[in-house]
Design goal:
The chain is an all-alpha fold and about 120 residues long. The protein has one domain (about 20-110). Helices cover about 65% and strands about 0% of the residues. It is built from 4 helices and no strands. The termini are far apart.
C-alpha cells in the first residue's frame, strides 16, 4: 500500500495572503484602471485577488459594482442619444467615473475603505 494523500479541493484557493502594502497597491490600480479600461481591471482583480485579503476583496467588489453600474448608465445613454440627451448623460457618467475612481484610488492608497456613491450592488 502506498501513502496516498487525499485529493485537494480544486476550488479552494491556496494563494498566500497579500501584504498590506500589496493590497493597497492592487486596490489603487484597480480603481484607477477603471478610468481607462472600464470594468475589466475590477473584474480581473475581483476574480484573481478576492481571496487574498479582506481589504482587496472589499475594494475590488466596490470597484466592480461601480463599473457595472456605469456600464448600465452608458447603455442607457446610448439609447438616449436618439433624443440628443444621451450625449449629456454619457459625459456626466464619464466625469463621475473619473472623479469617483480617483477618490477611491486615493482612499485605497491611504489604506481606507471607500464606497462609491450611486452604485448598485451586484457582487459582495
Amino acid at each position: 500500500m502506498s501513502d496516498a494523500t487525499p485529493p485537494t479541493d480544486p476550488y479552494r484557493s491556496s494563494a498566500a495572503p497579500l501584504s498590506p502594502a500589496d493590497e493597497k497597491l492592487w486596490a489603487t490600480l484597480i480603481h484607477v484602471g477603471g478610468i481607462f479600461f472600464s470594468f475589466v481591471p475590477s473584474l480581473i482583480g475581483y476574480l484573481l485577488l478576492k481571496d487574498r485579503g479582506p481589504f482587496i476583496r472589499a475594494h475590488s467588489a466596490s470597484a466592480l459594482n461601480f463599473q457595472i453600474t456605469a456600464a448600465i448608465g452608458y447603455a442607457a445613454s446610448l439609447v438616449l442619444t436618439a433624443i440628443l440627451i444621451g450625449y449629456l448623460t454619457s459625459f456626466a457618467i464619464w466625469v463621475a467615473v473619473v472623479v469617483f475612481s480617483i477618490l477611491a484610488g486615493l482612499a485605497a492608497n491611504r489604506g481606507q475603505g471607500y464606497t462609491y456613491p450611486l452604485s448598485l450592488k451586484f457582487v459582495s
